[in-house]
Design a protein that fits this description.
This protein is α+β, with helices and mostly antiparallel strands and about 650 residues long. The protein is built from 22 helices and nine strands. It has helices spanning about 20-30, 55-65, 85-90, 105-120, 155-165, 165-180, 195, 200-205, 220-245, 270-280, 280-295, 315-335, 340-360, 365-380, 390-400, 400-405, 410-505, 510-545, 550-570, 580-585, 600-610, 620-660, and strands at about 1-15, 50, 65, 75-85, 130-135, 140-145, 150, 255, 300. Helix 12 crosses helix 13 (about 340-360), helix 17 (about 410-505) runs antiparallel to helix 18 and helix 18 (about 510-545) runs antiparallel to helix 22 (about 620-660). About 20% of the residues are buried.
């Protein structure tokens, strides 16, 4: 987990003594200056966001129309930013974290920052000299200047005392210390006051004490000081009221301690309050979430960095000093060969950051906008590619070595270059070994691919031969099966004709009676044929594996069951012709295949499997065929029941007819 915090650094200035410095602040922030302390790229200054444009009138009023003492700090300048130093050191991609938010989102974020400052300082719009977000430097940040003042109005005595309270107390503290010093008493030796004060009468007269024994009530200097302030506060307040009332106010505004809101600004836990406020905004939430994806790590938002080498940096100058100090530490460890892998990574990342700052300071506006649009596209796609090649990082350091070491002494630079060259030599040898190993692996891989291709060709030949063999066997099985069906058909036709002839010879019956007996025989033959179908089921499953396409299967199932239902309806109506018996038995003639019913079901499956046969899906094909046959069995149960009832009826009619004869 990586820590992130925020910076709201305040600097106070005097509009009386530090006018030139204040103007210098204004010129730098508004980009009027020729030279800048930081890495400003003026090509990008048009991207800067003016949340509150520079108001020269407010500043001139502060210079010329405000009653303010020379030593008073009536101007407050804030530097506000997201401290992303730790994030940048852990960023292994080529994405600039400052380009995550859009122009409008950046503006909204810093507007919220300004809103927080104004609320805590109790400032109004008329107190803001300027508020500008800089995008033309390395990292995004906001500069704000406030003019502290109040409109000059005659105050009541209570208002004067309230506004001058700190001045009254400070005056009494100073006077108490000055009077004690006359007797050589201070904070360090106050406990020896009884021995140090020789002229106790003079002491009591100076401090308006009845006797010196009163001193025994005070163990510490602070206790006596508070006693003195309390005793003289009223008298000093009256003097202050007279002084203020006598002073003629000729200017529009005034500044005193009551105007200085910065005094109490940091008394509360303002940093934690800001974290709680700003971390809930939509803009910061987006920045945090996307940065976590880029770094592939979680971010902890804190008021102060705990585990960072830069945790106490209060402004940009402090941060630069700490970065240079940390760099020197790492270089010394490198020279002494005491550096671990994490520290080496940090050193290399420092160099990359310096190169990035230099690159960014030389970009044109067109280059910046192109990179910004590309970054926004990467963020939309979520494609954050890692660029963590140690060899490339070392090459970058080698190319930038003189600039990287420029602030170090001669001996340190020489030692680092020597150690770095040794490292390069070792790495070069390792790289050559890796190249040889890589070539060996590529050769092995090529041989392996060749063997795989050969094996695949052999397997394909086996599959082709096996498939051809199976197709021949399938055709032969089908031919044999059709021959058996034709033989069965011929035998049944002959048997029917023989039975008819026997009936005619033995019994003299009417045509109607003969028809009834024929019906009974036909029913028995249908049942016999049904049993043949059941027997042939295993033959079909074992020898003709197939798999149905979903749509074809539904069509096949619908047509099959529809045909069986039609057959049942024929029996229920006792409307049976010879041709219909042939249909119900499923006997197929070569001249008219459309008349096939029951056997046609199986033939359809056989034909389909012949054209869609797949050797390695036999189990699934068998399962599908089994499901179809199970459904057919259910239909045949109904079919059989109707046939049985019809046969019983025919038998009864025949028996009644014979008995009557």
């Amino acid at each position: 987990m990586i820590q992130l915090n925020f910076l709201n650094k305040a600097t106070t200035l005097s509009s009386v003594k530090q006018k030139n410095m204040i103007k210098s602040y204004v010129n730098e922030v508004t980009r009027v200056s020729e030279n800048y302390a930081n890495n400003v790229n003026k090509n990008l200054s048009t991207l800067n966001i003016k949340i509150r444009d520079f108001n020269e009138e407010i500043l001139n009023e502060q210079f010329n129309d405000v009653e303010v003492e020379q030593n008073s700090k009536d101007i407050v300048c804030f530097l506000s930013k997201i401290n992303i130093r730790e994030l940048e050191l852990n960023n292994k991609t080529n994405i600039d974290l400052n380009m995550i938010l859009t122009q409008e989102e950046i503006k909204k974020y810093f507007k919220n920052n300004l809103k927080f400052l104004m609320k805590k300082l109790n400032m109004e719009e008329e107190n803001i000299v300027y508020c500008v977000v800089h995008r033309d430097e390395d990292n995004l940040h906001m500069h704000t200047m406030f003019a502290q003042r109040k409109i000059n109005e005659k105050m009541s005595d209570s208002e004067i005392i309230k506004n001058k309270n700190l001045r009254i107390i400070k005056t009494l503290k100073t006077r108490c210390a000055r009077q004690l010093k006359k007797f050589e008493i201070d904070t360090k030796n106050f406990h020896k006051i009884d021995k140090k004060v020789n002229d106790k009468i003079a002491f009591c007269k100076l401090f308006d004490l009845q006797n010196f024994d009163v001193i025994k009530n005070f163990d510490k200097y602070k206790d006596f000081e508070n006693f003195y302030i309390e005793k003289n506060y009223k008298k000093q307040s009256e003097k202050m009221i007279d002084k203020v009332n006598k002073k003629e106010r000729t200017k529009k505004y005034y500044y005193d301690q009551s105007c200085n809101k910065l005094i109490n600004f940091f008394k509360d836990d303002v940093h934690q309050q800001f974290v709680d406020f700003i971390s809930k905004t939509d803009e910061f939430t987006k920045f945090k979430n996307i940065t976590e994806q880029i770094l592939d790590d979680k971010i902890e938002v804190v008021k102060t960095l705990e585990n960072s080498n830069y945790k106490n940096a209060e402004n940009l100058k402090d941060l630069r000093d700490k970065i240079n100090y940390r760099k020197k530490q790492l270089i010394e460890k490198f020279n002494n060969k005491q550096m671990n892998q994490n520290e080496l990574d940090e050193l290399l990342q420092m160099n990359l950051k310096e190169l990035e700052i230099k690159r960014k300071s030389e970009m044109t506006l067109e280059e910046y906008q192109k990179e910004y649009l590309k970054t926004q596209e990467i963020i939309r796609d979520g494609n954050f590619s890692i660029n963590d090649n140690a060899v490339e990082k070392l090459k970058s350091l080698d190319a930038n070595l003189n600039n990287f070491l420029k602030n170090l002494d001669k001996n340190t630079r020489a030692a680092f270059k020597s150690t770095f060259n040794d490292l390069k030599t070792v790495l070069s040898e390792d790289i050559e070994k890796l190249k040889v190993k890589k070539q060996e692996l590529e050769n092995e891989n090529a041989l392996l691919n060749q063997n795989i291709n050969t094996a695949r060709l052999e397997l394909n030949m086996i599959n082709v031969n096996e498939k051809q063999k199976l197709e021949i066997e399938l055709k032969q099985l089908k031919k044999n099966h059709l021959a058996k069906k034709q033989e069965l058909l011929n035998n049944q036709k002959t048997e029917i004709e023989n039975l008819k002839e026997q009936v005619r010879q033995k019994v003299s019956l009417s045509d109607k009676e003969i028809k009834e007996i024929e019906d009974e025989v036909k029913e028995e033959l249908i049942l016999k044929h049904y049993n043949e179908i059941k027997k042939n089921k295993d033959f079909v499953i074992n020898d003709f594996p197939f798999q149905f396409n979903k749509n074809l299967y539904r069509k096949f199932e619908f047509e099959t069951f529809d045909r069986i239902d039609n057959a049942v309806e024929i029996f229920e109506n006792n409307d049976i012709e010879d041709s219909e018996i042939t249909l119900l038995k499923g006997l197929e003639s070569q001249e008219d295949e459309d008349n096939n019913k029951v056997f046609a079901i199986l033939n359809y499956a056989e034909d389909y499997s012949y054209y869609n046969y797949e050797y390695d899906e036999k189990n699934e094909c068998l399962s599908n065929m089994e499901k179809i046959l199970n459904k057919l069995k259910e239909k045949f149960k109904i079919f059989k029941k109707v046939i049985t009832n019809t046969i019983k009826k025919i038998k009864k009619n025949t028996k009644d007819f014979i008995n009557s004869r």
